Amino acid sequence: GLQGGARAAKPQKELSPEEQQELRRKINSRERKRMQDLNVAMDALREVMVPYESHAPGAPPGRRLSKISTLVLARNYILLLGSSLQEMRRLLGEVSIGMGVNAGPVPRLLFAGGWPLIAGPGQLLLT
Q1: How far apart are CA 35 and CA 71, in angstroms?
Q2: What is the residue extent of each domain of the chain?
Q3: Residue 69 and residue 56: Cα distance in Å, rounded?
Q4: Is 34 within 8 Å of 59 (Cβ atoms)?
Q5: What is the per-residue pLDDT across 31-69, written as a single tens digit (0 to 9) for each?
Q6: What is the pTM of this model?
Q7: How many Å apart are CA 56 and CA 109, to the nearest integer?
Q8: Is 65 exposed, middle or buried (0-12, 13-18, 19+ CB in 10 A)?
Q9: d(CA 22, CA 27)
């Protein structure tokens, strides 16, 4: 089988210098497009993470987050949302049991306090 993303070997004809140059141009163009798409996606993620930027450990104020900082911050935020959701479910279970009723839809009042319940994703540690 194929390993490490290697492609099946095709018999290759010798490329002329012009063909080699054209092939290299196409490869470079695809790589440039891939990097542009990645940068656009990272910028979109940064826009979403702006409210939590100040919570990023070691991030100088007013400076754009690096790609790795953006990804770590986004990961931490996702973990934060998951733990907040888990905690809310636990609390709803306790409230329902205390009232002697089955857990039903979440009362709208519980959402009135605003999110997140914890200060920010920068507080979560990587595991």
Answers
A1: 16
A2: 17-123
A3: 8
A4: no
A5: 999 999 999 999 999 998 877 665 555 656 667 889 999
A6: 0.56
A7: 30
A8: buried
A9: 9
